[in-house]
Write a structure and sequence with these properties.
By secondary structure, this protein is mostly helical. 69% of the residues lie in helices and 0% in strands.
Length: 309
């Protein structure tokens, strides 16, 4: 695909409604989550409910929660440095992002930052799930078979699924609690505290009809956000930090820019302060550019072969 051909294929809904490629979208087995929704109009409804959560205003309100987990990671890194131990950044950042997604999504983290070696098994688990998606593209009925079989048999035949089912059970339990909280009379202060959380925003969203707020659909939505928000963000951070440390001139220039910012403030810098730094912003953009290659889920297969442009 040449640069000139991108515009006709990748267009907004005002130009043409484009469904996702079903073969690619089915890889996660979460057809009711935004990422697995094929139909353009249904996807738009489901995705619009998440827009407010990912807005700048929402992220700013969640910043104290995020900062708390970052502070915890820094403490652990200093402890490891004092003990002369090396750190696997992928594991460390996976623990960080998973705890942030858990806290900002449900109001309580998974406590992975406090586990030995930053819960190395957590990253392994998520990567194994990611690898299995390629198989599921070819044989999507495997998901249905695993769900129909007795759990004890599934755990014996496929240990990875055991951990996945337990995670899904935990997510569904939290969703039921949140639904009950919204349906009943809850302390006003608690409601005010939780209204910034992703799950509570989805349940209260005026953009979603009741059929879109079922336990199953919300569970699939949160599971995909947890997986995507953990692994991809952790990898982006790892790649970015590696290139900073591997290039002393870049590290020195970034350090000077951050030093100038901190010296001019009598408080801990906020996201708003950081995003004004030109060199840091350039590094963030480079990290995002380097983190992944082509994205198969964005393949304009249907547009190229089945649409009239």
């Amino acid at each position: 695909m040449t640069p000139n051909s991108i515009t006709p294929f990748y267009v907004g809904s005002s130009v043409r409604r484009t469904n996702k490629w079903a073969w690619s979208a089915r890889m996660f087995g979460t057809q009711t989550a935004s990422i697995g929704t094929v139909d353009h109009d249904i996807h738009r409804v489901r995705r619009s409910a998440l827009n407010a959560y990912f807005s700048k205003r929402s992220i700013s309100s969640l910043e104290p929660r995020i900062q708390g987990h970052v502070d915890k990671l820094i403490i652990h890194l200093k402890e490891w440095r004092g003990a002369g131990k090396s750190v696997n950044l992928v594991d460390a950042f996976t623990a960080l992002t998973a705890d942030i997604v858990g806290d900002c999504g449900f109001g309580s983290s998974y406590g992975i930052l406090d586990r030995v070696d930053f819960g190395k098994g957590w990253h392994t688990f998520l990567m194994e799930l990611s690898r299995n998606t390629h198989l599921m593209k070819q044989f999507p009925w495997i998901y249905d078979i695993l769900r129909m079989l007795p759990r004890r048999l599934v755990y014996f035949l496929h240990p990875l699924t055991r951990r996945l089912f337990r995670l899904q059970d935990e997510i569904e339990e939290r969703i039921r609690a949140a639904q009950a909280r919204h349906a009943g009379q809850t302390d006003d202060k608690e409601c005010e505290t939780r209204q910034i959380l992703m799950l509570d925003q989805l349940i209260a969203s005026p953009h979603l009809p009741a059929r879109e707020k079922t336990e199953k659909r919300l569970g699939e939505e949160y599971l995909t956000i947890l997986m995507a928000g953990t692994v991809t963000t952790a990898w982006t951070l790892s790649v970015t930090v590696y290139h900073i440390l591997a290039n002393p001139p870049i590290l020195q220039r970034l350090h000077l820019e951050l030093q100038d910012l901190v010296s001019g403030l009598d408080r801990v810098p906020t996201w708003t302060d950081y995003e004004k730094l030109p060199y840091l912003s350039a590094i963030v953009n480079e990290g995002l550019r380097l983190n992944h290659g082509d994205e198969s889920s964005s393949c304009p297969y249907l547009t190229i072969y089945h649409s009239t442009i």
